[in-house]
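User: quick one - fold this with acetyl coenzyme *A bound?
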Amino acid sequence: MRKINFFDTTLRDGEQSAGVNLNLKEKLEIAKQLERVGMDIIEAGFPASSPGDFRSVQEIARTIKNSSVTGLARSVKGDIDAAWEALKDGAEPRLHTFIATSPVHREYKLKMTKEQVIERAVESVKYAAKFFPIIQWSAEDACRTELDFLAEIVEKVIEAGAKVINIPDTVGYITPIEYGKIFEYLKQNVKNIDQVILSAHCHDDLGMAVANALSAVEHGAGQIEGTINGIGERAGNSALEEVAVALYIRKDYYKVETNIRLNEIKRTSDLVSKLTGMIVPPNKAIVGKNAFAHESGIHQDGVLKEKTTYEIISPELVGVQSNSLVLGKHSGRHAFRVKLKELGFTMDEEATNRLFTAFKELSEKKKELTEDDLVALVLEEQLTGEEGTYELAALQVTYGTTGVPSATVTLKTKENEEIQEAATGNGSVEAIYNTLERCLKQSVTLLDYRIQSNSGGRDALAQVYVKVNVDGIEMGGRGIAQDVLEASAKAYLNAVNRAILLKHTAKEKHQATV
Ligand SMILES: CC(=O)SCCNC(=O)CCNC(=O)[C@H](O)C(C)(C)COP(=O)(O)OP(=O)(O)OC[C@H]1O[C@@H](n2cnc3c(N)ncnc32)[C@H](O)[C@@H]1OP(=O)(O)O
Ligand SMILES: CC(C)C(=O)C(=O)O
Ligand SMILES: [Mg+2]
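Assistant: Sure. Structure tokens for the protein plus acetyl coenzyme *A:
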């Protein structure tokens, strides 16, 4: 099978992402991981651009042994000299030199004619060939360059000694079919083209960087350039983890192989994200948080029965521990049951169904339910499963920074009777508890009140624990709800119900013994 080289430019083009600035230690750490993941070539920086970049490239070249380390240089002797100084101690020193070839870049940026651009490119490749065993030459903005001129300059730099010819889509302008045609054109119109490896370097301005890179593979490219997580100048570069996994999963189609250790991908992505501060979007292919998460009931059911119904990539392949069934408002009973079992709860069909209804209600209010939320729901179900005398039917609280907090509560008894009362308090919780006391027509002393958030985030569930004394019986109670006031009311009622239950049980026992 044809081998495709992976050229990683996370440390050069990736660092050109607005807001990214890596220090030497960070670059070295990333370089080591790029070596571990199996990058054939690591572009460590642009040595002439700053003393810091020079030092990083030098240190990386001296450290990395299993990947070829390269550095960027303009067609300027000083840049090439700096690159050689930085790279010469590396295992396989390689220069990456470039010059723009498109009309707009020639006229406005370089202020050079076609002939001058050719002359400068050839001169710099010949100069670099005195030092470097391998020279990669790039035609910046190749995809907006006249094809005949592109072919002409490519032929001349190959004659001058370039071993890799890179055809960058510098501004992310090309489409996959057009990009493929450029490679075909060069193969047919550059007489010494078979002496070199053709390379693709794509940007994502129109969201086609990965598709363009894959098209280049189909049309003869032997090297793909890109970055981890697709970071880079403007909208970024081809995401190499996506290219690598696409080539693997669709090897039936591309029929190529790479050196990439796919199971190191997630770790590499996490490291780059952490050190660059560039957050990976949850829906990002391969490495996004949701890439292996199934939320909807039909998908979850399918995956539980046979993973490949909805998974074309196994998470383990790319170093993700496992897929996940996210419980949310689109989930169904199959996934719900599995999750309960995973959490160690066994319950009958009736209880499961009751819990599922409560879960669905809650998921309308809260986007994603965590395991903690589920445990809380189960505990509440188990507690409220005990025969309760009173049930909270409705709660209304009025609170403002001025005025007295008040609460109106409707309770339902076991006999379906409704009791409604209102009262005030110094705070909302006190107003609720005063109202409940009125409803219950018995004295209840609050001994303890504790509140905690069930998980992180603004929509976390509130859990309230209370301890009350009802007619000499001390009892704890727990309430869980989206709202702290509702959780407070439920906890109080839960404790009272349990105290009443205990009182009745004790009385029955007493009567039985008399
Ligand atoms: C497509 C890409 O990603 S290319 C890589 C882009 N990366 C970077 O630019 C990051 C590092 N760059 C830098 O630190 C600086 O730009 C430096 C050190 C390279 C140069 O800085 P300065 O000398 O101040 O020049 P400045 O950046 O303002 O302008 C670039 C100069 O290089 C020239 N130039 C650009 N590309 C090339 C090239 N491939 N070969 C020769 N000259 C070039 C420009 O025409 C301009 O020349 P001018 O000063 O005669 O007009
Ligand atoms: C230096 C070159 C290869 C580049 O980054 C580009 O053209 O996008
Ligand atoms: Mg680029």
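One thing worth noting: Residues 13, 168, 170, 201, 203, 233 surround magnesium ion (ligand 3) (CB under 6 Å).
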